[in-house]
User: Fold these one by one.
Assistant:
Number 1:
Amino acid sequence: MTIRPAVASDAGALSDLSGQLGYPSTVTEIATRLEGLAARGNNLVLVAEDAGRVIGWIGVRSDLSLETGPFAEIVGLVVSEHARGKGVGESLVAAALEWAKERGHVRVRVRSNVVRERAHRFYERLGFVEVKKQKVLDKPL
């Protein structure tokens, strides 16, 4: 397995995996978003590749908050259903943590939907600690 930065030609696989996570997106949407994230300079999307096939991805960004200062945040993680439980997610998280450390961050945040109990156990096993519960509210514009 290889962990590497995502490239435009990964858009199809990233689209399929995002759908497994519950966020269906077209290949064009993913390609456009990937390009936009790369242009910002504070985001990274990594993929896990096995035998030439993308089997997972993680998104991480560097951010700054007035109340808590600088931090990195894992903003998405999905591993293909057939590859779960084989260390892929752990390898992706490790690579994201290394990226955050290289940028001088001393903490990494992750938000996880309250219904994703398996994901909560995964992150807790990796040393993440729950610090609060919250609701996320959207308003279409």
Note: The chain has a mean pLDDT of 93.
Number 2:
Amino acid sequence: MNQVYKVYFLSRLREQLENGILSLPVDFLMDGDYYYWKEILYRKAWVVYAKPPFGGPAHVAMYLTRYNHHIAISNPRIVDITETHVSFRYK
């Protein structure tokens, strides 16, 4: 499974880069050469840990939806807003 995932991931990465959907900084690519960088990734051993979700996919979806639409500070907690500061109440 590790090898399959590695090949799939790197092929999708190449596709995204070639289609201009994804761009990486030149310094990240070590000399700006994607193929040099890809060879380094291919040589590394990848460890992929995946197991079936507890309770099935519906349980995972319900778990994630609890965190999907939370806001950091709700409007009633905001006391004052200026050009440089936001004051709010907290518990």
Note: The beta strands are 78-81, 86-88.
Number 3:
Amino acid sequence: MDIGTIEPTIDSREIRRRRAGITSGSGPNGGSGRNGSGGDDGSDNRSPFELIPNKAKVFTTFLLVVVLMTFGGLSAAYIVTATNKAIEWRPFDLPIQVWISTIISLSAALFIIAVS
């Protein structure tokens, strides 16, 4: 090794296998590689089976839960208000700003769909 250079201690293929959860039949030094029983390759003590969450999947799942909870809450509020005889459900007119922002949002979504 030359002075001022850095050599990786873990092969990039090993990192990809760890992230994807793919394991080979043998560890780095001939061990089985299961549950940390493989040989010591000088790297950290993480097992290849350790869960490394995908940030995009976690964010998407969180966003889906937020949307579902909002939809459920609004649906429940509508059902309670619509079936309650004491409180009368009165429709109201939406302001023009709501219609303008809706048109802008829909046109932007259609533009993105058309471009991709």
Note: The chain has a mean pLDDT of 74.
Number 4:
Amino acid sequence: MTEPGSASQYQTGTWRTEKPIIDLGKCNKCGLCYLFCPDVAIEQNNDGYFKVNLFYCKGCGICATECPKRAITMVEDKE
């Protein structure tokens, strides 16, 4: 039975064919990847950089498209 507000418990990244890789050397911590991610799969670390939570990431590539520094590259997910 599915309970209201329980969506965060369900892994949604299992059908991904590509995953985003963030080059921290290029990242300027602008947060556009976080703002545009439709799955809320981008999280901010304590140091201000962003990371991808692959539990939720579906590999849509919107984060890579929106990144003004081109710090995010989509690569084949071989898992």
Note: The helical segments are 32-36, 62-66.
